[in-house]
Amino acid sequence: MSVPTRLSTAISRQAARQTLPAVRAAPLGVQQQKRTRADASTSHAEFNSPFTRGTSGKKDTTVIPSFKKYRSGSETNNKVFQYFMVGAFGGLSALGAKNTVQDFLVNMSASADVLAQAKVEVDLASIPEGKNVIIKWRGKPVFIRHRTADEIKEADETKWESLRDPQADSERVKKPEWLIMLGVCTHLGCVPIGEAGDFGGWFCPCHGSHYDISGRIRKGPAPLNLEVPEYDFPEDTSLVIG
Ligand code: FES
After folding, report:
1. CA-CA distance, 169 to 215, in Å (whole number)?
2. Is 219 a pocket residue for ligand 1 (Cβ < 6 Å)?
């Protein structure tokens, strides 16, 4: 760049710096004019602060604003509405709880096919004297023994008071010739073998428990006699278990 050109550039920059403040000042003046017009138009607007005490007009932020105009006029109406809402929601909650409990009980109760298995009827005429029959009831084996006169006599004459689980034979049977018991060893739940063991009754091979002809524990680790289930004789030759 030549010397005259540099000189002319410097002169024009200097001139621009001097005129710039005037150019910048012009918009400010316009803004001030606008604000003045706006102030003039809103100078009559009123704002009633809810924090003013009222009499002196002195502002006090500790005053609680009044919301009276938003409240209903009657205290009784408010209480009636509150009681209604509480009662309605209480009723709905109780209804929901009742339905929940009812559904739970319905789901948990036994279905029709399970109830049908709850009782089992056995024709006793088909079981000869001196024989065992095993049936399934509620998933467990049930022993039915048609006892002979000798077996009844033996069971009856046993000195039961000194046994591990003392029980008279008469407490374990409804008819002396029919002995009905769960076929589950009272030690750990194996199924004992009939007409076996040292006492002519049942023998559990799992750990060597011996039961007599009344199903009472006589020897081995089992702690209790074989359990007698609920049963009945609706007719002479009919047995219902359960
Ligand atoms: S389960 Fe019968 S003796 Fe152990």
Report:
1. 9
2. no
